[in-house]
Amino acid sequence: MNRSLVFLLPVLLAGCKTYTISPESLKQQLMRAQPTTVHTTGPFGEVHSYQANNIAMIACTDKDGNAVELRNGPSIEARITLASGRRRLTYFDRIELRNDTLITHPSRFVPTMEFRIPFSEVVRIQVQDGRKDFSYE
User: Can you list the pairs that 101-104 forms with residues at least 24 positions away whose Cβ atoms lie under 8 Å?
Assistant: First the structure.
């Protein structure tokens, strides 16, 4: 077996860590957040400006139920599971709460695309660092 593969295999198997946020915890965090304009640089050097929640550290739990704080950033992805079993994927910094509706923007390249999700339908939120090449300016 190739030696580089032996060293790379554990990294590939570890993958991205996934954390969970309860709907109530997400609601509390979003209620304290204020929308702010951010500028991100994408993988090709392009700059995107958009409104983002200003949550610096995301309160969540790991797979063992331990409390963890995950630094928010433009590459943090959220997977929102609905009561119907359907899932919505979005960037965490693009989630906002208006009244009892989650508003998400799943694309940086199509900023007008948005999903409106009744908060009562949300049963689980998972977040992970997608390790995409986006950074705040």
Answer: 104/78, 104/80
Average pLDDT, the chain: 87
Phi and psi at residue 132, in whole multiples of 5°? -80, 155
Hunting for tokens 């630094």 — which residue is that?
A: 71
**Sign, CA torsion 49/50/56/61:** negative
Residue in the structure block whose two tokens are 């797979």 = 63
DSSP per position, 9-24: HHHHHH----EEE-HH
Q: How far is Cα of residue 50 from the mean position of the Cα atoms in its chain? A: 15
Q: What contacts 35, CB < 8 A, 6 or more positions away?
A: 51, 52, 53, 54, 96
Please report where in the chains the tokens 């198997």 appear, as a residue.
13
DSSP codes of every residue in 30-91: HHH--EEEEEEE-TTS-EEEEEEE--SEEEEE-TTS-EEEEE--TTEEEEEEETTS-EEEEE
DSSP reduced 3-state for 132: coil
Of the pLDDT bands very low, low, confident and very high (cuts 50, 70, 90), residue 4 is very low
